[in-house]
């Protein structure tokens, strides 16, 4: 038995999220079908993270086990021939049988891309979020710094969240302008259900002066979802990477140059 790691891109628009669901097209179910055709047997694919409907991914890491002996390019080009538009494998490598795409991850990263123009960006519908109210980026960045470190993120946790603990360590919380968009970059030990969309919604309230930076801190301290701003749209949210310990020997994934925002 050989364990294979894939990195893949997908546009969440048109799919019912990552996780398999009966009678629905999900990224996991479609990918398992395509990989199974190259492997010659059914496979179970485990991902580094589970994205909701409408959420995109660049470099999502997944693994599966196979008895098939195939060259690495077969797990890329071969699998891609059986995938619909909107999902593609971009790299493959053999990993240790003990490697686990989810449990070995030490951090995950997401980027939210927001258009802050008076007119909605219809040509980018489903690809970026939108707020027509002018936003104060330095103010949002200042509030975002309160997210850093080990925190209880209950205020930004969906009522449907099944995580055992709301406590996560946030390594990065950045807000900046790039390529005509406002980008929100987050890197943490893990994320709760709807956590980023809830944080972005709250930061937009700060940037539009609907709440103050002090009130943002009070929302965090309350550990209550009931007093926080509403969940923001999924359209502009991208999974942008996962980090593993050096001993796992995972080839690093780099964001494509065409993607909005920072690339280091």
Question: What does the model show?
Answer:
It is a single chain. This protein has five helices and ten strands; from the N terminus they run E-H-E-E-H-E-E-E-H-E-E-E-H-H-E. The chain is α+β, with helices and mostly antiparallel strands and 264 residues long. The protein folds into two domains: 103 residues, Alpha-Beta Plaits, CATH 3.30.70.580; 132 residues, Alpha-Beta Plaits, CATH 3.30.70. Strands 1, 2, 3, 4, 5, 6, 7, 8, 9 and 10 form a ten-stranded mixed beta sheet that branches. The two termini are 35 Å apart.
pLDDT under 50 segments (min length 5)? none
The helix content is 10-25%
Note the gap between the termini: 35 Å
Question: What is the number of beta strands?
Answer: 10
**Roughly how many Å is the radius of gyration?**
19 Å
Shape: globular
Strand content: 25-35%
State the CATH topology of the largest domain. Answer: Alpha-Beta Plaits
Largest sheet: 10 strands, mixed
| SSE class | alpha+beta
Order of H and E elements = EHEEHEEEHEEEHHE
Overall pLDDT metric: 96
Give the full name of the CATH homologous superfamily of the largest domain.
Answer: Pseudouridine synthase I, catalytic domain, C-terminal subdomain
Can you tell me the CATH class of the largest domain? Alpha Beta
């Amino acid at each position: 038995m050989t364990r294979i790691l894939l990195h893949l891109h997908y546009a969440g628009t048109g799919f019912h999220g990552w996780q398999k669901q009966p009678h629905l097209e999900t990224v996991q179910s479609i990918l398992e079908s395509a990989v199974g055709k190259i492997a010659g047997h059914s496979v179970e694919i485990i991902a580094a993270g589970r994205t909701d409907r409408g959420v995109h991914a660049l470099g999502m890491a997944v693994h599966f086990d196979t008895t098939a002996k195939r060259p690495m390019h077969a797990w890329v080009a071969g699998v891609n021939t059986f995938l619909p538009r909107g999902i593609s494998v971009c790299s493959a490598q053999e990993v240790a049988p003990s490697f686990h795409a989810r449990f070995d991850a030490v951090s995950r990263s997401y980027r939210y891309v927001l258009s802050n123009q008076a007119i909605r960006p219809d040509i980018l519908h489903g690809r970026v979020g939108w707020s027509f109210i002018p936003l104060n980026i330095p103010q949002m960045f200042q509030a975002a710094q309160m997210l850093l470190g080990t925190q209880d993120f209950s205020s930004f946790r969906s009522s449907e969240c099944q995580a055992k603990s709301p406590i996560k360590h946030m390594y990065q919380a950045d807000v900046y302008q790039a390529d005509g968009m406002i980008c929100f970059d987050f890197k943490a030990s893990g994320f709760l259900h709807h956590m980023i969309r809830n944080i972005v919604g709250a930061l937009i309230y700060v940037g539009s002066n609907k709440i103050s930076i002090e009130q943002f801190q009070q929302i965090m301290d309350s550990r209550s979802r009931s007093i926080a701003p509403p969940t923001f749209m999924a359209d502009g949210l991208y999974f942008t990477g996962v980090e593993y310990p050096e001993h796992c020997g995972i080839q690093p994934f780099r964001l494509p140059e065409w993607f909005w925002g920072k690339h280091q």
